[in-house]
Design goal:
The complex is a heterodimer of chains A (317) and B (437).
Chain A (H helix, E strand, L loop, with lengths): L22 H11 L1 H11 L1 H24 L10 H11 L7 H17 L11 H12 L1 H4 L2 E2 L11 E2 L2 H6 L7 H6 L11 H13 L6 H16 L4 H6 L3 H8 L10 H21 L6 H18 L14
Antiparallel strand pairs in A: 1-2
Chain B lengths: L23 E3 L5 E5 L9 E2 L6 E2 L4 E4 L8 E2 L4 E10 L5 E9 L17 H10 L12 H4 L10 E6 L8 H8 L1 H15 L3 E7 L3 H10 L6 E6 L8 H9 L14 E5 H13 L5 E7 L7 E6 L4 H7 L9 E4 L6 E3 L12 E5 L1 H4 L12 H5 L6 H9 L3 H6 L10 H5 L6 H18 L1
Parallel strand pairs in B: 1-14, 9-10, 9-12, 10-11, 13-17
Antiparallel strand pairs in B: 2-8, 3-5, 4-7, 5-6, 7-8, 13-14, 15-16, 15-17
Classes of the chains: A mainly alpha (317), B alpha/beta (437).
Amino acid sequence: MSKMKNGNLIVSSAPHVVAPVNTSKIMLDVCIALIPAMIMEVVVFGFRALALTAVCVVACVLFESVTRKLLGRPDTISDLSAVVTGILLSYNLPAGLPFWMAVVGCFVAIVIVKQVFGGLGQNFANPAIVGRIVLFISFATPMTTWVLPKSQQTVDAITGATPLGLFAKGMDVPSNMDMFLGFIGGCTGEVSAIALLIGGVYLVIKKVIEPTIPVCFIGTVFVFALAAGLDPVFHIFAGGVMLGAIFMATDYVTSPITTKGKIIFGIGCGLLTMVIRLYASYPEGVSFAILLMNILTPHIDNLTRLKLNGVPAGGDK
Amino acid sequence: MSSVSKHLKGIHVNHCKNTAGQSIVKMPVPEKVYIPMVQHIGAPCQPTVAVGDHVKVGQLIGDNAAPVCAPIHSSVSGEVTALVKGMTAQGIVDTSIEITTDGKQEVAETVVPPTINNKEEFLTAVRASGLVGLGGAAFPTHIKYNPRNPEEVDTLILNGAECEPYITVDHMTMLEHAEEIVEGTKNILKYLNLKQAIIGIEGNKPDAIAKFNELVKNEPNISVCELLQQYPQGAERVLIYECTGKHLIAGKLPADVGVIVSNVTTVLKLQQFLTTGMPLVTKSLTVDGNVVKEPKNVEVSIGTPIIDIIEFCGGYTGEPKKILMGGPMMGRALPDDGKCIIKGNNAILAFDETFANMNPETACINCGRCVKACPMNLMPTALFKAFERKDVDALKTYNVMSCMDCGCCTYVCPARKQLSFINKLAKSLVLAEGGKK
């Protein structure tokens, strides 16, 4: 046909431009959002807590890399999702937990929950949550041996009960201010509500998460506690509500996609958490609540399928 | 302002309107033009000239009696030197008429203003103008203006959104020819017996909005609708909704909701045909991209090879790796720069490999960005998973046929999935399945 100068151009389907955000950047933002809580775990529990986080991160990344290699799949550690899982799992463990137990948790999270199901995006439950639950059930004593904040340790006692443990036994609980700042017993990353909230605000500003799930989750816990005649502020700051609502329940893969679905999911998490706290034998129920709602997510997604603009229901022809 | 309070979803793309404010420069006729016999949706034209014939500007060189077809005219004066078969810029293999130009640009004797007294004569004139939708879809205008349900159609919407990045030629056309566009609008309202016209212009063109507001302030039937600065405001279904609040679902035509949509440039070209009788033989377009030396808005003869246009714009500054006909969101990537300008063209964008290289795909993390971006309220992530397992029922349940290929989902996907392309494949899959039954 006519003359041409360049006959070897790249042909692809439109669009030819993409937004700058990619999976690694999203995961990096989550890691950044987890830094305030990391600082607080050191302030409250000392460097043993940070060492635990480091062990979990390294273990998760190694497990991910090795499993992918064994399964003959491309390496995906650069998407940083294993780093996020490592940090989150460590935040769900008591500061004094033996490292080898933490590594077992990482194995469960990365190998069994994530990679065996097909890797990132294919897991039906949050890996860190399942890792924690398996450890909790397998190693009940070390997983409930709560190191006290350094400021509250005495010569005789370096461990003690968590606020929810005290609450379950009907004993005096710490002040709401101590709980807000994080000077209480508990898992390394869950104690400081303020640090987790700062991270949450960062994620919302960076548009990594929408506030729907955390607000519904925390709101439901608050209202449930209020209705039960309890101190609602205590219940939203205690245990894993903040960590769970902001960082675990908002995991894209295992939470619903639509706003309506997110509302159902958040409320469900809040309700289950309070039911377990008040009526079941465990003092805390956040991880079980999120796991159960993870399992329901595909059904919630089905129920909350979006309708076409201008069409009441059903499909187009 | 827009007439709806709740807007459709969309995305924010960098405008990159580098050529904004640049007047449209007329490019001299090239040595040769290649005019494809299919430049529109519908039946291809048959050449009405033979090799050796002398042709003049505006002379009919291709037509077809099929109902959906727009005639094709010579954009130059010169000699027909070949009828070549080859792939056109649209990817269709068909005949193109090669005309070696003589540079005289003599106008054909047939180019005289049409006499119009009624709707039939008006529609005949629209067909004779060779007009197709110049926003890119290239649907024959005379068919669009002659809906099956004329009594239900009362609104003309002018598309001046120009929501694609880089492209500024419609913007400049609106500034340079606002009066003629308004005159053309009045003619369409008059002959098609429509009640009102709405000119939809994206909010990033305040000067064009102000100009039209000034021109139509004494025209009770014509109004200006300022559109959101959001992609894809110029997509037909989005534009209709934003201007009228009416939803156009898949399988329906704008006329089914009482609307006819025309690009502002189409209306301008129609008005020029009504006053001069010169059919559609030139097209204004934006030439831009990071390997084009002097990005410009140019007016070129239809059939001009892209390489000639690039050379008119100072040539390449580096090796082009991707050349787009149209904008980066919906434009077509061309295999080479020897392809020629067709009627529906509004941009030629040439980029180097930093732009052209594709990002590797990673796993879908179910983040929902595509769902939040889709103007049609589809769930691209669910469609993509349904397509992977070739589940036609699920594709239908998730309304894949309503996808309009705007590309918002692919744009926002952090996993770099080609969601929009997958939807195209999924639509073909559904159609193929439908054909089997």
